[in-house]
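To close the chapter, one final illustration. This time we ask the reader to focus less on the individual chains and more on the assembly as a whole: which components sit near each other, and how the overall shape emerges from the parts.
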Amino acid sequence: DAMVIQNPRYQVTQFGKPVTLSCSQTLNHNVMYWYQQKSSQAPKLLFHYYDKDFNNEADTPDNFQSRRPNTSFCFLDIRSPGLGDAAMYLCATSRVFPGGNQPQHFGDGTRLSIL
Amino acid sequence: QQQVKQSPQSLIVQKGGISIINCAYENTAFDYFPWYQQFPGKGPALLIAIRPDVSEKKEGRFTISFNKSAKQFSLHIMDSQPGDSATYFCAASIRGATNKLIFGTGTLLAVQP
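The assembled structure is written out below.
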């Protein structure tokens, strides 16, 4: 089945130690998104790629970076994780069509814990 | 103006009852309104979606009612089942904005057997 796959499902890192989360997709969608979701809250968009064009949200901390080496893969880098960065990180994909907006398809997330 | 307001925050319904979740928006540039269902430890999954040129869309037990003039839309879950217990998010997407979603705050639904 075509899908959005996030690895690992659970990640534990130390305070201040860089961490990378990965996302891959078999949907061949041209847009990939990264969200942060904290308990009992809605997903919060961090940034997205439209093909190779990177779009950062205004309130995304500089501590968060992303890379998209090809259509299928996208990475979230947290350069110096703080305790407040403990959350579920969700990757999503979508296809942009001229005819109208399309749904986003989400992976099952990576649960990040900070020690 | 970019917000989507969702209510209630939580909802308890008896098995077989109707669950109703409401959302409201201000931005008339929104032209796509999906609902997502999220189970604990899982990512949100698209449940049903509507565009503003129709007033209602039904898929199985799930119906979206859309009132363009009032800028409101709602999700109705008929014959609610314990397996429907999850968090539901409404969302809105702005025309021509790479399908970027504005989420509501979520509703935690518990269906009691």
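Chain B touches chain A at residues 31-32, 34, 36, 41-46, 49, 51, 89, 93-95, 97-101, 103-106, 108 (CB under 8 Å). The longest strand of chain B covers residues 30-38. With these observations in hand, you are ready for the problems at the end of the chapter.
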